[in-house]
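Today's session is about reading a structure prediction critically. Students often jump straight to the picture, but the first step is always the sequence itself: look for stretches that repeat, for charged clusters, for runs of hydrophobic residues. Only then move on to the predicted structure, which in these notes is written as discrete structure tokens rather than atom positions. Here is the chain we will use throughout the hour.
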Amino acid sequence: MPPEVPGEPAGPEGPRRETVSFVRRGDRLSASRQDAWDRLADTYVLDLPRGERDTLPAEGVHLDLEAVFGRRAPLVVEVGSGQGENVAAAAAAHPERDHLAVEVYRPGLAQSLDRIERAGSPTNVRLLPLDAQRALPALLPAGSVQELWVFFPDPWHKSRHHKRRLINPPFLQAVLPLLAEGATLRLATDWAQYAHHMREVLEATPGLVNAHREGPRPAGTPADPVPEGMAERGWAPRFAGRVKTSFENKGERAGRLGWDLAYTRVAAPTD
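Below is the predicted structure for this chain, in token form.
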């Protein structure tokens, strides 16, 4: 099927699609990824009934986390898990937690399966091939997430595409109710302009408090432009639980810096 482009009509007479933060790419798998998918998808990939699009769950579908993982444990959710470097390493290193990786790109899911197997086949991880912004609020109970990770989301550089950025009010409004009080929202990007955008949006969101208000900016001078008014403080140290991926290494070679953020979920103020 052709790529699913955010904001384009579904058909000549169909409704206009809601703006999303991703573009669906080809789903063809290499031989090694197909092998991983054939052997492991039934164990790790949550195959839920689909709704109006194949990236959405059917109406009324919910995730029973205790049934999915066979226990009750703190839940870490990674949105846009890519090729699975972080979720595979985290699941293997932290058997006391459960991990849910959300990713719509099938080759990335297949690569994640291979990484999970190479990490020792931990049983505390599942992959969800759906649109996080619309699927997670429908599937997960309120207050069920202890950590939410968003690492290196698509920056959508052009001004006319900024509405497609994942870190925007609609996404935060969708996921904040899922975070338990005291839960942590962790983010990272290697584009200074997107880091600035993230700070502005997050600081304006009731129910979130910067966990590192005095944290300095990352050391060094980035190759990409730094927006005027970029905050000098309020940056988190590099999250030790984040694997340095080939994507991040590529950014470093290009001279970009890694900008980390961490926010704590608190009770929103009432009038």
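Discussion point for the tutorial: Strands lie at 75-79, 98-102, 125-128, 145-151, 179-189, 208-210, 259-265.
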